[in-house]
Structure formats: structure tokens, C-alpha cells
Amino acid sequence: MTTIATAQKTFISDDFLLRSETARVLYHDYAKEMPIIDYHCHLPPDQIAADKQFENITQIWLYGDHYKWRAMRANGINERFCTGDASDWEKFEQWAITVPYTMRNPLYHWTHLELLRYFDIDILLNKDSAREIYEECSAKLKQPDFSVKNLLKRMNVKIICTTDDPTDSLSNHQLIKDSGFDIKVLPTFRPDKAMLLIDSPEEFNQYLSKLGETSGVGEITTYESLLAALQNRHDFFASMGGKLSDHGLEHIYATFDEEAAKQAFTAARNGQLPSDLQREAFKSMVLFETAKMDHAKTWTQQFHLGALRNNNARMLRELGPDTGWDSIGDYSQAQAMSRFFNKLDSTDQLAKTILYNLNPADNEVLATMTGNYNDGTIAGKMQFGSGWWYLDQKDGMERQMNALSNMGLLSRFVGMLTDSRSFLSYPRHEYFRRILCNIIGNDVENGELPNDIQWLGKLVEDISYRNASNYFGF
């Protein structure tokens, strides 16, 4: 049987992804030790508050990870080993069997980076090494040094921004703050349900009942009282240290008809499905009003655009959303985006903004759109965000940074985020920094940039940490 002592060593060397001497200097001397600001993620605040201790590697690594589930399904692994009733060891074993087949998928890199950085395991994960890796990782996870808070400290994380619905009490954020934890864990305001559930009146009314109670507004009976409830929660999030909002949309909505929005609200409140135009207007107006709230508080608004969600209706019924049945959509983005930002800018109420696209065909669209609304009030006010979801990999990151470089200022980029639900995802920042340094190093080696290591080193440090720190004002 293969043992950890005799198994094949990992391919991840100190110079992983660094193809030139300049890249190696930029990474090791400048990027590597910079702290992490994770300004967008989906980490569960209750697990941070409780300083959760996971029983085994499966619980922290495979539970909820639809990236891995999709790979396992593609490899012919039965659903029982993804989301089903198989034991934690059986699920891990099936993932280990799948890993060698993920070569050239980013999961192959992430898997081995995470084993190395968190558990000091520098061998390849496969069927033969699975049992010993499972037992070693699981044994370590039971030690105090591997609690959730200590895992975050291990990665030099300074600030985490979770993603939270307006109806969330944020009690766990308060517990984290009261505990004296030296990593800031701040809420992010995501009011999507208040807009998008207009398509489902029954769910919309259930949500309004909860929002009315949480906000203290009471029964939400009018469009105006809905906005009042959202303003109340926006203010509360700010009091808890929040500085960002986030929206996950197919595309931005920009049909500015307040009367139609009110009609949509009334119809849905009465259990009727509003017309297409009314629903479009409602989504547009609520999005517009919350955007003005963001500007008033000098927050940053984020837009994650272009996911085609829940494609497999049968599996959605069986497993629910966020279980791995989403893909890239080919929505039109530019015109509505321009109308939306222009209307906010016309009254000087356009907040700092980060745009993320899921369709790589939109890279240059978003990169050029940001340039239309940079007004000199702050460096990089409008940001073309890091490669997201299916683009959160080597090729996707390179293409995003090249588009940004060609159309704007890479030097003002706020850099990487995890967008993850896993406490083992922070090596993605290392992955990003290595790719960044390699891009710049290649340009120097090709004679396309000056060999000014001091300036280039500063640029790398800025993108890795300082730009985000200055931009968000934490």
C-alpha cells in the first residue's frame, strides 16, 4: 500500500506557476507575505462565531462544494457520494478517485495547494493515498490549532466580508466582534430576494413578512414601506461595520418606471403575478433605490452578472439550489448597464462599483464600461472584478487581467477574493498572486516592461492588498 512517506510528491514547488526569474522575485519578495482582504465570500458567520472544529476533512472540504460535486458526477460517481447518505470516508474516497481525472481543471491545483498549505501534505491525492491523507487531515482538524478561527489566522487573513440577506439579524457578527477576534468579519448587504421574488408572489409575501418583522417596520403593505424596511436594514448593516452591497443577477435591470413598480408590488402582495413590464420595473427601481443608499454611505456596490441558474429541474427538485446545476448565460449586458449607471451618475449618486462577469465574452464589455464612469474622485472608482466562478482559474484570471490592462489600469485593481463557502479556500489568493507575478514577469523578460523591480514590486503589493485596503476604507 502507498504511504505518505513513499507516495509521489506533489508538483507544487516554491516556484509553482512562476516561469521567469522576475516573476519569482516579485512573488517571493513582494506578493507572498501580503495580508489577505477577502472582500467577498460566503463563509458561514455562525461557524466563525462558534470557532467550529470539523470532525474530518470531508466535512470542511466536500460538504457544500458544488465544484467538486460537478467533477465527481462527470467522472461517473453516483450522487450518493456527493450529496447523499454515504459516509464521510466514502465521499472522500470517491473524491480522491476523481482527483487524478481533474488534471487541467483548476480543482487539481486547488486540491493540492490546500493539502500543502493547511496540512503540510505534499503528495498527490489519489485512490492509493486517500486513506492516509484522510486520517492525517482529520486528526489535525481535531486539534485546537485547526479550529475555524485558527485556520483563518494561518492564512494571514485580516478582513472578511460575508454575504448576508437584509433579514439576517447579524447576531453572529456581533458575537464574533464581542469575542475580540482579531480578524474583522463584516456583513455585506445582499437584497436580491426583495427584488427577484417578485416573480413568485407566494415566496415574495413570505419574505416581506420576515423583512417587516426584522426591520421593525411591521407589515409591509406598500412599495414605500418596502423601501423603508430596506433602508432600515441598510442602516443597521452599516452600524455593524458593513461597507459593501452585492447583487447576483442575470443582468442589470434598467426600466425606470416607478408607477409600474408600485403596480407590481400591489399585484404580488395580492397574490397575483405582475406583468413582465411591471416586474422588470420593480426590479429596476428597487435596485436603483438600494444603489442610492450605497452611495449615501460611501459603500461599494458589487454586481455578479451572467449566471444561468438551476438548469436541471429534476435535480433542483431533489437537491435544491446551489448544488451544482448552474452554468454560464449569454445575456445582453451593455445597454442596461449603461442606462443604470448613467441614471445614477446624472445626479452624482453612483457609488464605487465592482463588476463581475460569468461569460468571458463580456470581459472587454465590462472593462470598457468601467471607464465610462470613472470621474477622478477616487482611483479605480469603477472596477472590473476578478475572474468569478467558472472564470476563477488560471486562464480566466489571465484573460481578466489582460482585458483590464488593455482597457484600464491594472495598477488600480483591488485584486482577489475567494467567493467561497469553504474555510480551506484561501490558497486561491496565493494562486492569483502567482499568476499576477508571472504575467508581469513575462512582460519584463520579453522586454515589454522596464526591469524596475522596486516599482513593479509596489504594484504587486498594491494589487495583492493595499488597493483593497484603501478602496474599501476598512
Structure description:
This protein is an alpha/beta fold and 474 residues long. It has 20 helices and 10 strands. The strands form 3 sheets. A 5-stranded parallel β-sheet has the order 4-5-6-9-10, with helices on one face. A 3-stranded parallel β-sheet has the order 1-2-3. The chain has a two-stranded antiparallel ribbon with strand order 7-8. The mean pLDDT is 97. It has helices at 21-31, 45-49, 57-61, 66-74, 88-98, 106-119, 130-141, 148-154, 171-178, 192-196, 201-215, 223-239, 258-269, 276-296, 313-319, 334-346, 363-371, 394-407, 427-445, 453-472; strands spanning 36-38, 157-161, 184-186, 188-189, 244-249, 300-305, 307-308, 327-328, 352-357, 382-384. Helix 11 packs across helix 12. The protein is globular, with a radius of gyration of 23 Å.
Task: Work out the helix count.
Answer: 20
H and E order: HEHHHHHHHEHEEHHHEHHEEHEHEHEHHH
Low-pLDDT sequence parts: none
* Beta-strand proportion: 5-15%
Structural class: alpha/beta
Sketch the major β-sheet: 5 strands, parallel
Gyration radius, rounded: 23 Å
User: What spatial order of strands do you see in the largest sheet?
Assistant: 4-5-6-9-10
Total number of beta strands? 10
> Whole-number average pLDDT?
97
